Amino acid sequence: MPTPPKPLLQRQTVTAMVAEYIAAKIIGGDYPGGHQIRQEAIAAELGVSRIPVREALLQLEAEGLVVIRTHRGAVVSDLSADDAIDLFDARLLLEPFLVKKAIARLSNQDIANVERALRDYEAAIARGDPKELSRLNWAFHTALLEPSMRPRSMAVLQTLYSSADRYLRLQIEPLKAQTKALQEHRDIFEAYRLRDAVETSRLLKKHVADAAEEIVSQLKRGEAAG
Amino acid sequence: MPTPPKPLLQRQTVTAMVAEYIAAKIIGGDYPGGHQIRQEAIAAELGVSRIPVREALLQLEAEGLVVIRTHRGAVVSDLSADDAIDLFDARLLLEPFLVKKAIARLSNQDIANVERALRDYEAAIARGDPKELSRLNWAFHTALLEPSMRPRSMAVLQTLYSSADRYLRLQIEPLKAQTKALQEHRDIFEAYRLRDAVETSRLLKKHVADAAEEIVSQLKRGEAAG
DNA sequence: GGATGAAATATTGGATACGATCCTGCGACA
DNA sequence: TGTCGCAGGATCGTATCCAATATTTCATCC
């Protein structure tokens, strides 16, 4: 029985792989804000041509991770405190709204999904891998909002989140902040499970606002130190 | 005195020109929802290669105008009534919020800009070109929100708007709706000029909500008709 | 006659090659 | 000494060409 010549992973396009690769570097902090991304360097590093690299960069620009200027290439976008306020204010409007819509049409399956996301997050704290923790944190938020059936708004939130994600990592690292976030996640889930839209919305808003305040003050300290 | 060899327009890249070209076709209704966009056809039409066409399509996907599926090309994205509700709910959260922020830091120059946008819109009604009208309508909204200094949120709004824009055109065409929109714009501007944040926000919200209702009901009729 | 499957065709994805633009460093001139 | 202009190299933007995938066509079988 001849196996298929290539593994299933090959199903995705090179562009997508490159985009993932660069995004991971940025989110992981390997490419800090302001870092110049050379198309040829990435291409050589991955053994591909520059075309998929360019197209990956275009996608990342749409997600707000890089900024492209004509004939000057792509630089990793840097977040000012004002940018962070901008991004989080938008999240603070959208997330509470969507969670109410989600609760309005919540199935038991949805609740189970959120519970699983919560447990995954819990387990990751024990292991302590910050990148994984960041990913699972967002997975929890996504699970909360998914039942709202608002793909466009979810896409917007995705970009808002990924623009601030790598800065959130700084906040999420200290163990104290982690356990605080976990407790908040538990509280949110409890209200969510009971389908209490108002309370869930309130808790979620506070949860996001706390994170925002933490990041903004951190960025302001950084800018003052400059 | 030797003039520069090429006109100033050449300053932008081919990709940008192609993106503009396709976007205009979509917004203008020449490419209806669901229409397959062949890279080679566009390339031949404009006398360029397929590479800038592909990159233009990637940008348009980020703006929500087309959907790209691997090895199947790009199709003009079609809006369901649910999508429209999704998009407009997000706008209804963001625009009133941003206009309040804008008023909080309003300069006389900003007010003059809005007034000019309002007059341009007024003048376009007289001429009656629907594409131009659509563009100037959004220019007015943008001018209102610009002083908020929230570039990230503005970028989000831009994509939300351009996804629904061409359906708005249907609503904006009847003369009655046009004059209604104009009167609303005038009312909004009056409150804005007086720096009345609450009233401006209220009027703007209603203005957007009215447009949303019109479009959604129109889409629903279309879906029922199949 | 309709469904199934394989070859032919069309279309997209990616690699290589070339021209255009921008940045850097050196020298000329005020 | 400081500023300007001008090579030279580095990097990006686009065209051409090849490979991979999807769609269509057409013969075959039930």
TrEMBL record, chains A, B:
CDD domains, per database record: WHTH_GntR
Q: Which UniProt keywords apply?
A: DNA-binding, Transcription, Transcription regulation
Q: Taking every annotated instance into account, which residue ranges of this chain make up the domain HTH gntR-type? A: 12-79
User: Which GO MF term does the entry hold, naming one?
Assistant: DNA-binding transcription factor activity
- A Pfam cross-reference name: GntR
List the Gene3D superfamilies hit by this protein, alphabetically.
GntR ligand-binding domain-like, Winged helix-like DNA-binding domain superfamily/Winged helix DNA-binding domain
Name of the featured protein: GntR family transcriptional regulator
Organism of origin: Mesorhizobium mediterraneum
